[in-house]
């Protein structure tokens, strides 16, 4: 663990500084540094003679130190994470899991009509999240990571996005008990969660689904990670399929299903908000680029998928059923205000 555990933030190092840090740590000058997620991302690929590694910068020293401990303990426990390779100043190094994200693997399988492979990859991803949480708790990580989303204000803010987005696109907000909806988000227990467990933050490596980007991990109910995965625009499976697969890798009571559906609805709302913001700011993005660089999926087909799955999660939820038609209305309103430059690509979404 780094000795720099204060809360002060470090400045992002220049390219020259990064090259010097790599050379100091590995004893060899890197051939080049590339940005698989595009410029400005915290993680970069370092090309050393004969191999590549990932260099990650986190400005907050305390958060960086915690992430390093999480990686070390999870790797020692045999969890599906990249190996920690050391720290140098404001950056740390970890194993490179390759350039093909889980989101791309899922899309390639679906585009080629290999639905059984889609379900196999999806089950592997869900199972790996369940295993990660179990191993993290056994490794004592619950003692060092923060508790998240416990305040009523946090829950009300998430539910409040429904009205904010509705007003933004001129759509009538759904009629539901927002206070009850917010109250339903209370965690029923506190277990380790990765957080931000999207398919873009995972890769297939050594025949396992491995996860990276651990800066936001913490303690909450435990079903947030499946919600992050399944209520995301890059996830190809409908809610009922996802629930059926999840039930094969962990016990899933009726109360679990309802809690997960409620949370998934609000996560889909959050993703929709990101898409609206990006379309209004930048116009539509190329879908392949969004997936390859792990950008927000503000492409027409991905919006359609999110709206459809959001409506399906709403139909399964206790407090979000009124949002079932709302997702489609929001999609239509965004397309009307910002028409895509060309018809959406055909094919399964």
Mind explaining what this structure looks like?
The protein is an alpha+beta fold. It folds into 2 domains: 15-95, Phosphorylase Kinase, domain 1 (2-Layer Sandwich), CATH 3.30.200.20; 102-337, Aminoglycoside 3'-phosphotransferase, Chain: A, domain 2 (Alpha-Beta Complex). The chain is built from 12 helices and 9 strands. The protein has a 5-stranded antiparallel sheet with strand order 1-2-3-5-4, sandwiched between helices. Strand 2 (43-48) and strand 3 (51-57) form a beta hairpin. Helix 4 (115-138) crosses helix 8 (239-246), helix 5 packs across helix 9 and helix 9 runs antiparallel to helix 11. Residues 1-6 have low confidence and may be disordered.
Largest sheet: 5 strands, antiparallel
Report the sheet-strand fraction.
5-15%
CATH top level assignment of the largest domain: Alpha Beta
- Tell me the number of structural domains: 2
The count of β-strands is 9
Shape: globular
Structural class: alpha+beta
Assigned CATH architecture of the largest domain: Alpha-Beta Complex
Number of helices: 12
Share of helix among residues? 40-55%
And the CATH topology of the largest domain? Aminoglycoside 3'-phosphotransferase, Chain: A, domain 2
- The value of Rg in angstroms is 20 Å
